[in-house]
Task: structure prediction
Amino acid sequence: DTEVTQTPKHLVMGMTNKKSLKCEQHMGHRAMYWYKQKAKKPPELMFVYSYEKLSINESVPSRFSPECPNSSLLNLHLHALQPEDSALYLCASSQVIQSNQPQHFGDGTRLSIL
Amino acid sequence: SQQGEEDPQALSIQEGENATMNCSYKTSINNLQWYRQNSGRGLVHLILIRSNEREKHSGRLRVTLDTSKKSSSLLITASRAADTASYFCAILPQAGGGNKLTFGTGTQLKVEL
Result:
């Protein structure tokens, strides 16, 4: 079992839908991350939150909107997605944004855009 | 690109054999990390090696780092079927801020009974 919990595990949505991905950790970590992973490819960083503030946005399209309501929760709001956005979305956390801290990953949400 | 390149892309071995995966990168690093990803699951951190370290061990895992050649290797000894997974190196460059890992292309390991 992973210590980072992501819901839902699977999500199918149309291009006009609005949905949200959720991520939760109770390890007291203060840095949280969203990654996008296509099949047989490495994860690509999307967003980084540090102490509930957005620290890094890797030029992600505005149809992806992150939110960090508190230190344990991270959301990714989705709106008007495109078929090419179909992927595995991974959440991760680490103690703080420091160079010697490994990241802990959830099992991801597999997103399919119709 | 700062992305690491891993080889081989795929590796198939028999249970009990050793598996070696290599990672090459282009930038100066702060540290290099190895992660495992089982099919349909998230990534699991295996080992972190800092730029001033040359070798680290963890159980059946051995990681080496050669900063002069900008390369690292992951050795899994006495492999088991449960080691079947994708393995990614991830580099944290010296320049830039925050914990911004860049993952390598990955090696798909299959351990057969």
User: Anything to note?
Assistant: The radius of gyration of chain A is 13 Å. Chain A has a mean pLDDT of 94. DSSP finds no helices and eleven strands in chain A. Chain A touches chain B through 31 residues (CB under 8 Å).
